[in-house]
Design goal:
Elements lengths: L1 H20 L18 H4 L21 H10 L5 E5 L4 E4 L12 E6 L9 E6 L8 H22 L3
Antiparallel strand pairs: 1-2, 2-3, 3-4
Helix pairs in contact: 3-4
Length: about 160
């Protein structure tokens, strides 16, 4: 019998709390809508701005296509595990370069639409997460940048 009384008490308390939440404003400046940060002229955006399509998502991708294609071509011996052209990340599995004896895996991030060395971030790992010599990483970055420039020249956009 006590569980039924406890259940009724919980239901009554819940209904009272819900009813209190629906109550009107008690004074002139008690609501959150009156705070200075919530005024539309200060806030600058509304909920409707979320639904407004002001930009075409197909034209706002921040990835350089020459760096993207050059990365895939230069590292074509590595199996691609995941690609995300919208964030500019390519992740590969382990593979051995032609003529090499050590396997690598790579994560490439193209962070900018510019054809620039600063736009390319490359991380190489050996088996078991072993570190790769900085000279090797630099050589692969240089190969990707060189191939990207070649692709741009072939495209005729200098």
């Amino acid at each position: 019998m006590k569980t039924a009384q406890a259940a009724r008490l919980i239901i009554a308390a819940t209904l009272c709390a819900g009813l209190a939440a629906c109550g009107g404003r008690g004074g002139p400046n008690l609501g959150p809508q009156d705070s200075p940060d919530m005024r539309p002229e200060v806030r600058g955006t509304t909920i409707w701005d979320t639904f407004r399509n002001s930009e075409n998502p197909n034209t706002t991708v921040g990835v350089n296509k020459y760096l993207w294609n050059a990365s895939l071509e230069v590292l074509n011996f590595l199996p691609v595990q995941s690609v995300d052209p919208f964030t500019g990340v390519i992740q590969t599995g382990y593979g051995t370069p032609p003529g090499g004896g050590r396997s690598y895996r790579a994560t490439i991030k193209i962070a900018d639409p510019a054809l620039d060395a600063r736009s390319l971030k490359l991380s190489l790992q050996g088996p078991g997460g072993a570190a790769v010599e900085p000279g090797t990483v630099r050589a692969v970055e240089d190969a990707i940048l060189t191939r990207a420039r070649q692709l741009r020249i072939q495209d005729g956009r200098l």
